[in-house]
Every structure is written in structure tokens, then in C-alpha cells.
Amino acid sequence: MSDTRITEDFLGFGLGLRTDHFEHILQHQPDIDWFEVLSENYLVAGGKPRYYLEAIVEQYPVVMHGVSMSIGSSDPLDMDYLKALKKLSNDIQPKWISDHICWTSIHGVNSHDLLPLPYTEETVNHVAERVRIVQDFLGRRILLENVSSYLSYQDSTMDEWDFLSQVAEAADCLILLDINNIYVSARNHHFNPLDYLKKIDPRRVQQFHLAGHSDFGDYVIDTHDHDVSPSVWTLYQAALERFGPVSTMIERDANIPEFPVLYQELLEAKHIAELTLPDNAELARSSFGTRSLVGLNKHISTNNVSPKHVRA
Fold this sequence. Notes:
globular; Xyl_isomerase-like_sf
């Protein structure tokens, strides 16, 4: 892990690969730059999911994104899971592998939720050591994603952004910055999301997530079943101003629309990036949207993005 380059190359604009869209992708071969694969869906060899995955991997770059590493748990690392993860990685050759800075299991029982950690020096050391073990086993850096949260620990001694930064530095890993999760947690815990962005090291931010949430007024829940909200688009613009071009994708896990609907939403992300970072050479290398540029301005003007959210 001694190479001087921290992040991988900018991939462009991607989508989460979902079973609903397998046939559309193979039939129409849309000009998406890359897809994010949910690791746990493909750990078993064979079957229709692997058939479709292997066909799509032949045509598109992919990254792997997991929810079961439980990097913050006090349980021992699940080596069987890590072996299966490494086997999948060897099979499909993802550009990178990510999971969440959280815990999901205790005493061998999986909560099936991404639970936040106490933000303390002890937890920093604990998580960083486990990340180093995982990276040594996989033979590559991993990305850690910030999770949304709804409660906090009384024992916490630092802010979430300082905790994430210290773990990434101590473990020499990278960061998947979920813009929607920052917004959700900011609303729930009453902090300024811009403070979060300001404290994260740009050298370590490899990827952005964009997603929708459910707003209940007094609190917000990260549900991934809505369009990206105007407030999250605005925060995305601020993230671009802070970090520059970062590989960006949209997650949708429920109430999944037809593929063209998500395609159009992803066009909004690219349009915001181009307005925020005009004449950027890395953005210019993205092939996404080149088949739909004629209709882009019309679509943008009738949807969420407006001069209120993006400065031309």
C-alpha cells in the first residue's frame, strides 16, 4: 500500500445495477459509464444473477459495493465472507470495492441494518485495524461509506466527519461519500452539512452516492425509494466545488422505476457537474449522455434542477 497515488481514475457517471434492468441494459446497451454491483447478490457462482452480471461486465466497468463486512463490529471478521468477496472480485475485476463504516452484526447475529458507531479514539483504532486486515487480505484499498443515522452515542467524543477522516487516514483507505446520507444525518442531528464536506480530505474521496429519502418533517429516513431531492442536488454541487470531479452514481433500492427514468435523473447529475466544473478535462472524457444531448436541456428545465440549485 505504498503507492503515491491515492484514488483511482474518474469513471464518470453510473447507476446501481438492479435485476429490474438486466434485460434493458443488455438489449439497449445504454451509454452509462459504469455500474455498481451489490456484492452480496453475486457471491454464489452460477444462476441467472451471475449470468447477467458476467454479460454486463463484458461491456461495462463495474465496482463492488457491500453491506455485510460489519467493519465496526466487535465480532471477529467473517473470513468466509471475505473469501467469497475476493473470489467475486477475481472473477469480475471491479475497479474498486466498498462497504460501510458501521456495524451490522453482534454475537453472530446479523441485524440487516447499517448501524452507526460511537465516534471515539478507541473506535478509530479498532476500525482502522480491521480495515488494514481486510485490505491486506483483498490486496487492495477499500472504500468506506458514511451511513445515515437517527440516534447518537453519549460516549462520542468527536464529530462524524472527524471520525471518518481519522479512520481513513489511519487505515490508508478511501472514502465513498454518500451525499444523501450527509443530508439525512444533518437534518436528524442538526448540523451544517457543509461543515462535513469541509473536513473531509479530498485526496481520499473516490466515489459519490446520490439517492432519495423520505422526509417526515422532524426527521428524515434514508429509504432510497424517491428521486434525488433538490436539497441533495444542492449539496452535490457543493461537494463538486470541494472535491472536483468524483465518480458519481445514483442508488435506487425500492420503488424502482424503468431504466430510462433513472437514466434521465443521472443526466441531471452530469449537467450539474458540467455547470459547476466547466471545461473540466476529466468530465469531458465521460461518454454518458452522448446519445441524448439533444434532449438534455429540455429535460433539465422541467425537472428538479433549476438556477436555484445550480449556478450557471
